[in-house]
Amino acid sequence: MSSAPRLDRHRVPLRAFAIILLVLVAIAWPALVGDAFYQRVGALVVLAAISASAWNLIGGYAGQVSVGHAIFFGAGAYASLVVYTQLGWPPVAGAPLGILVSLALAIVIGTPTFRLRGHYFSMATIAAAELIRLLVANWPLVGAAVGLMGPAAPRSVADLTFRDPLAYYYIFLAVLALLLALTAAMERSRMGYYLRAINGGDRAASSLGVPVLRYKLYALMLSAAFTSIAGSLYAVMVGFADPDSVLGILISVKIVIVAALGGAGTLFGPLLGALILVPLEEWTNAAFGGSGTGVTYVVYGAIILLIARFEPGGLLDLVGKLTRRRHAA
Amino acid sequence: MLLEATGVVQTFGRLRAVDGADLAVSEGEVIGLIGPNGAGKSTFFNALAGDRIPTAGRITFDGHDVTRASPDRHARLGIARTFQVPVTFTDMTVAENVLVGAFLRQPHRAAASAVVDEMLEFTGLAPMAHRRAGMLGTPGRKRLEIARALATKPRLLLLDEALAGLTPAEVQAAIGLVRRIHALGITLIIVEHIMEVILTLAERAVVFHQGRVIAAGPPRQVVNDPAVVAAYLGHRMAARMQA
Fold this sequence. Notes:
The structure holds two protein chains of two kinds. Chain A has helices at about 5, 10-35, 35-60, 70-85, 95-115, 120-135, 165-185, 190-200, 200-205, 210-240, 245, 250-260, 270-290, 290-310, 315-329, and strands at about 150, 240. In chain A, helix 3 packs across helix 12 (about 250-260). Chain A contains 15 helices and two strands. By secondary structure, chain A is mainly alpha-helical. By secondary structure, chain B is of the alpha/beta class. Chains A and B meet through helix 1, helix 8 and helix 9 of A and helix 2, helix 3 and helix 4 of B.
């Protein structure tokens, strides 16, 4: 059909080549570094990329900047540890429970807040996340302020408690690959265009027949489900969750920054952001020791300022601009 | 009747922006909504498009009561619109903007893309298909809004000052476009300040003043109506012109 060229860009071969290279490097990474520390950093990069890519569906494509995604991350983390402490199941078996809870929370939180615009929506999500953190911190069943622990020693392989980060790295990578494949498919479908139209303007989108609230809710639910999976995987690996470490505002902020730094609303932006930010964070933690959390806040603040001032589209947008300029020249 | 509005009232606090307006439009008509600034025509127009739920009154389209229906339901039933200040999706390309509209009737991308090409040709935007919508000037954006609206395959198209701010040459091109849209069998309601546009395009003009319809009929007849002249120029000026 002669219609294809009107919509598709012509730089496809370059992009396909970059993706193949990325996949190969991702698979070979643990072998390339061969060191448990770097393998662990790799696993954390992929985990951050999962959360940020999940946030990207609602925050990037649909432009609804949630600063409360710790809700879903925490739901996933707590769900996996609760099935262990209460039922003795392997933590990973709690992931479906986390997804269900997150979907329910997405509907309960999204339905009223999606009527709010811009900053008001962001503020409402912060408030919702803080409220849930306080509730959990006072709920004995989930360990209240102390939190929950996973199995100290593996009872079977199903507990997924490996001393070696290698296994976690590949499990996380598989989830990230699934999420990015899903996002890529969505990008080219009606839903992808509808979300970008909502980002461009609610009023115009609804005048063209886009059921705005419904699509925002779809995007939030999909986003919540994958953020919850990230939380469950985190809890499985770390074997511990408390209100601050999985429900704190720093988690929500970090998810936004990772996505925005790389490029919100682009397929690979969140992954790029994770590739830069996670190693940076590991480095500041190592360099400043236990007092490093304060420094982390400072680094986040500086990054927010720099993105907002110089490159609101994120780094991928900057790369796009530079290559376009070269094409034009 | 394709569209029927009866006793539409829209209040903002104590202001009655639309105060009991009636309008009946049959299939294939071109209606011009005119009136001085602040007459309530834009507010009435937004009620017809579902952008605002009227305080009172009833609006039906093709037998469906759409008084309280959402804008997206209006679109699904076959009412499309443009905005006074164009609101294109600036980060998307021109073709992608139109694709959003086309997806309403064609959920699959290949079929929707065919509609996009057709609409880009029809509106003369094909050479700009890959440009970012944000790069277009005002005439281009207005044209893009029309292309996007047409991609939803409407039966009724509401144009809100689609020709305002254009140069005389651009106005002529836009008038040609509106004629071709009408030739497709699409019913049109046009809000317009430029009288020339109403005189050349509209089969019937409806004049708003202070939230009410004060005159309706063939445009040339309506513009000479003493009540209409008084609404635009004030009573004293109207009396002097009569003399």
